[in-house]
Amino acid sequence: MRHDTLLLRGLAWLCLSLVLASPASGAQLQVTDASTGEPLADAVVEVLHPGTPSAAGDAGEVMQRDAAFVPRVSVVAVDSRVSFPNRDTTRHHVFSFSPAKVFDLELYLQETPPPVTFDQAGVVVLGCNIHDHMRAFIVVSNAPRIARTGADGRVALPGLPAGRHALRIWHPRLEDTHQQWWEGQISRGETRTVALDLEASLPVRAEPSALQERFRQALQDREGS
pLDDT tens digits for the chain (225 residues)? Predict the structure, then answer.
């Protein structure tokens, strides 16, 4: 009898787990490139429905390594603090002129500046005054549901409330000002694919100019003295 009771309890928990993991309790979304059909990584998904704004997001750090920002796309909640450590052997000058956050971290090497607080929703474009090819993005969100696609272009949206909800999707290549969002709707239990028409091209890593080389050499000479 005890064995039968334990077996029944186990089956009940299994059924409950399957129900909670099923699409009916949430939604499944894949983001692709409309021209190629390939999945798009680093697409940011917001679902707008009644509820408390999300406090979850990516870790509050964007490092500089191998003359690139890592990660290239971050998602944080409003009022998040993000630090910008330099893991290169050359100095960087991190800045943003984006409406959601204007800031300027002048030339530094290993002395990481204090974290920057991102207190307004929007897309923040990062650049480096020394390396023109360096580009990264911080999406600051106050949506109750935010996610970022992986290499397969997919995100799971578990536990959505019943009904149809506003859906917004952003990707760095939607357009050149990086402020445009695709807008639509999604319902609990829905599985869908959204194909984005991409217009902007990613920055190409160019060879440093003669002025940049002279500047770097001067820094190295000063640090070596």
Answer: 445 544 444 444 434 333 334 445 689 999 999 999 999 999 999 999 876 666 555 558 999 999 999 999 999 999 999 999 999 989 999 999 999 999 999 999 988 999 999 999 999 999 999 898 999 999 999 998 899 999 999 999 998 888 899 999 999 999 888 899 999 999 999 999 999 999 866 555 555 555 455 555 555 555 555
Q: Rounded to two decimals, what is the model's pTM?
A: 0.77
Closest CA to 27 of 194, 160, 196: 160
64 contact partners, CB below 8 Å, separation of at least 6:
70, 84, 85, 86, 87, 88, 92, 94, 128, 134
CATH architecture of 25-224: Sandwich (2.60)
Contact assessment for residue 31 and residue 151, using Cβ atoms and an 8 Å cutoff: no
Domain locations along the chain? 25-224
